[in-house]
């Protein structure tokens, strides 16, 4: 048996550091106590509800419960993928999400960069307050305002068009305009609120970097390109990766309020489909399967995007 310098077994020499390590855990017990509410939140509201995923593989009946419901395997997934309008719904969801990535996602970044250039603090705070307000307006109110502005009968815009000698334009019933209208509403409502994270990131930029850029002869655009954008690049990548995780979530309430029979071909998405089949049709197992499919797609995209971000030298989410 191996012994240390004074003849004791080697295991005894390693016992003391291990004991000190365990004791050190209890030194900061108050910090671990602060972690308990967050841990309980994720346990109760994030992990325990995942038990409900089981009903995606059952013919779930509320009267029989999860335990006694009949197992059917991948039956509901087969039904989903063989549904005649599956690819139409999938395409509509992907296209709207793609439009959001192209037009909505950069909007808070652009607004943050513009606000960062303002030097009058009073005016800057006023603008921030104004662009934050739409976030607190519900989608019901936003949809109502849209109908009042763009409605064919009595809409303000169409009334002005008629007053000038033109004909009313069917803004809300034209399929080609529906997706653009949805994205425009999202930008108006949420772009200002999204600037909070980017403005917080911009406060961490070292002012000496701007001073050095000015000494080198860089103008405002050069400072923006070589100092400001690189400073928030990691934040942009992280939020983009998280956004990809919700690529199949386009917002049920928003779409449902704006959807009508004339634009179903371009506006029917997974959320509205789940509403019809799950809540109206009572197919709980089938709609759970749809939700699980969306979650798996989001997980794959997050893992893939995070891997690519690290390959290009960015931090990533994990």
Automatic annotation (TrEMBL):
The chain crosses the membrane at residues 29-48, 94-114, 126-150, 286-309. One of its GO terms (cellular component) is plasma membrane. Belongs to the binding-protein-dependent transport system permease family. This is Sugar ABC transporter permease. One of its GO terms (biological process) is transmembrane transport. InterPro entries: MetI-like (IPR000515), MetI-like_sf (IPR035906). It comes from the Bacteria. Keywords: Membrane, Transmembrane, Transmembrane helix, Transport. Residues 90-305 form the ABC transmembrane type-1 domain. The keyword Transport applies. It is a multi-pass membrane protein. Coiled coil: none annotated. It comes from Paenibacillus cremeus. It is found in: Cell membrane; Membrane. The keyword Transmembrane helix applies.
């Amino acid at each position: 048996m191996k012994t240390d310098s004074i003849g004791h077994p080697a295991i005894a020499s390693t016992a003391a550091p291990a004991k000190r390590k365990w004791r050190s855990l209890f030194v900061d017990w108050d910090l671990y106590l602060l972690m308990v509410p967050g841990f309980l939140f994720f346990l109760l509201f994030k992990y325990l509800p995942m038990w409900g995923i089981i009903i995606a593989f059952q013919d779930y009946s509320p009267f029989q419960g999860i335990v006694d419901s009949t197992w059917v395997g991948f039956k509901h997934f087969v039904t989903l993928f063989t549904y005649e309008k599956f690819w139409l719904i999938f395409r509509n969801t992907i296209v709207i999400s793609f439009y959001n990535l192209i037009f909505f996602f950069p909007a808070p970044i652009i607004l943050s960069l513009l606000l960062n250039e303002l030097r009058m603090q009073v005016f800057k705070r006023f603008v921030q307050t104004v662009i934050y307000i739409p976030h607190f307006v519900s989608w019901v109110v936003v949809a109502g305002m849209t109908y009042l502005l763009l409605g064919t009968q009595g809409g303000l815009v169409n009334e002005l068009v008629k007053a000038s000698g033109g004909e009313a334009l069917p803004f809300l019933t034209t399929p080609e305009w529906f997706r653009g209208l949805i994205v425009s509403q999202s930008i108006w409502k949420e772009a200002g609120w999204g600037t909070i994270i980017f403005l917080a990131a911009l406060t961490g930029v070292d002012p000496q970097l701007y001073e050095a850029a000015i000494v080198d002869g860089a103008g405002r655009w050069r400072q923006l390109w070589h100092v400001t954008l690189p400073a928030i690049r990691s934040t942009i990548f992280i939020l983009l990766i998280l956004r990809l995780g919700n690529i199949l979530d386009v917002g049920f309430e928003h779409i449902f309020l704006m959807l009508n029979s004339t634009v179903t071909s371009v506006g029917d998405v997974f959320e509205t489909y789940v509403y019809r089949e799950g809540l109206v049709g009572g197919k709980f197992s089938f709609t759970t399967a749809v939700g699980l499919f969306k979650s798996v797609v989001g997980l794959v995209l997050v893992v893939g995007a995070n891997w690519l971000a690290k390959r290009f030298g960015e931090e990533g989410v994990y």
